[in-house]
Design brief:
- By secondary structure, the protein is α+β, with helices and mostly antiparallel strands.
- The protein contains six helices and twelve strands.
- It folds into two domains: 167 residues, Cupredoxins -  blue copper proteins (Immunoglobulin-like), CATH 2.60.40; 90 residues, Sandwich (Immunoglobulin-like).
- Helices cover 37% and strands 19% of the residues.
- The two termini are 21 Å apart.
- The relative contact order is 0.12.
- The site of copper (II) ion (CU) has 8 residues, from loops.
Length: 323
């Protein structure tokens, strides 16, 4: 189960955010308790009885000495509030600066494009042939800064991996950048954090933080063209794929399918989930998704596919071979 919690930071950015958050939590929590204690004290203290004739109404004006004491209390309260807010201000400014300080030379650049309702992910490389394109699953090496370039093709989305950093919006026609670094290996769940339509809640992704060698092996595998079918059924499945509407929306590198309306499927079988974290990547889920994804994620941009059972099984064999 991937972790998705801002309370369990796995990198310096998230670590700074959470320490700021805890400080604010303790200070404001203490202020709240103190205010409540004063309120309670005021409620249970000597109460003068109401009612009776007008002449019996007690004179509630404070005596001069009491009034002086009261203004001291109020002044102290105001001064304390100002000091606390000022400390918060300084501390959050320092945190903001620190969050922005990861501009190291030796970094990885990952482009993320938000779509309703999935994430297109590509790894920048000076040589175009070394650019990897995938979807919904981002691998990064542990301990290395990563620059994320974020944009969107449709509406505003927000990129959020609570264990690693705060949120950054993906805005159509504008590139936002954010840096992050993970110090702890693991699998972290990210989630779109800006309401972006019907299936916003099903717009998740996975960040896999692994040692450099493992990352490199993953990267090289993703770089390769799709695996050639090795069984008759897989061959038939590829035929089904290439003669179905699939090719109008999907890419499988090494075949004629080169559209980018939906996720790149060249290595779809290597991913842990389908449809932006909605389903575990199993044969049954894959079948359900391909036949009628609208049942699973109503309103998503992939139409249902009416396939003969034999064709469907062959197609599944093929898709599952795309490691
Ligand atoms: C009109 C465009 C379109 C067509 C046609 C189409 N798809 Fe899709 N497909 C999409 C979109 C868009 C998504 C992403 C949906 C989401 O997660 O919201 C998707 C997602 C998928 C996924 C999940 C990928 C992942 O990593 O999450 C698979 C697998 C898939 N499609 C297979 C197929 C197959 C097989 C066909 C043909 C039988 C097909 N698609 C036809 C647009 C299309
Ligand atoms: Cu979104």
């Amino acid at each position: 189960m991937p972790s998705q919690s801002a309370l369990s930071p796995a990198g310096p950015q998230a670590g700074r955010i959470i320490s700021l958050w805890w400080m604010m939590f303790y200070v404001t929590g203490a202020v709240f308790l103190i205010v409540m204690a004063f309120l309670m004290a005021a409620l249970v203290r000597r109460r003068r009885p109401y009612g009776g004739a007008a002449a019996d109404v007690p004179d509630v004006r404070p005596e001069p000495s009491g009034e002086r004491r009261m203004s001291h209390v109020v002044l102290t309260g105001v001064a304390l509030t100002v000091v606390i807010l000022f400390v918060f201000l300084v501390r959050s400014y320092v945190t903001g600066r620190a969050l922005d300080s990861l501009h190291e030379q030796d970094h990885l650049t990952v482009k993320v494009v938000g779509h309703q309702w999935w994430w297109e992910v590509s790894y920048d490389n000076a040589t175009a042939a070394y650019t990897v394109t995938t979807a919904n699953e981002i691998h990064i090496p542990v301990g290395r800064p990563v620059l994320f370039k974020l944009s969107s093709t449709d509406v505003i989305h927000s990129f959020w991996v609570p264990n690693l950093h705060g949120k950054t919006d993906l805005v159509p026609g504008h590139e936002n950048v954010t840096w992050l670094k993970a110090d702890r290996e693991g699998v972290y769940r990210g989630q779109c954090a800006e309401f972006c339509g019907h299936q916003h809640a099903h717009m998740a992704f996975t960040v896999v933080v692994e040692p450099y060698e493992k990352f490199k092996a993953w990267y090289d595998a993703q770089l390769a063209a799709a695996q050639e079918p090795s069984t008759e059924s897989q061959k038939q499945g590829r035929q089904v794929f290439l003669s179905s509407p699939c090719v109008m929306c999907h890419t499988v590198r090494g075949t004629d399918a080169g559209s980018r309306v939906g996720p790149d499927l060249t290595h779809v079988a290597s991913r842990g989930t389908l449809a932006a974290g909605t389903l575990e990547n199993t044969r049954g889920h894959l079948a359900g998704w391909v036949v009628d994804s609208q049942q699973i994620k109503p309103g998503n941009r992939m139409p249902p596919n009416n396939l003969e059972p034999a064709d469907l099984q062959a197609l599944l064999d093929y898709l599952q071979s795309l490691k």
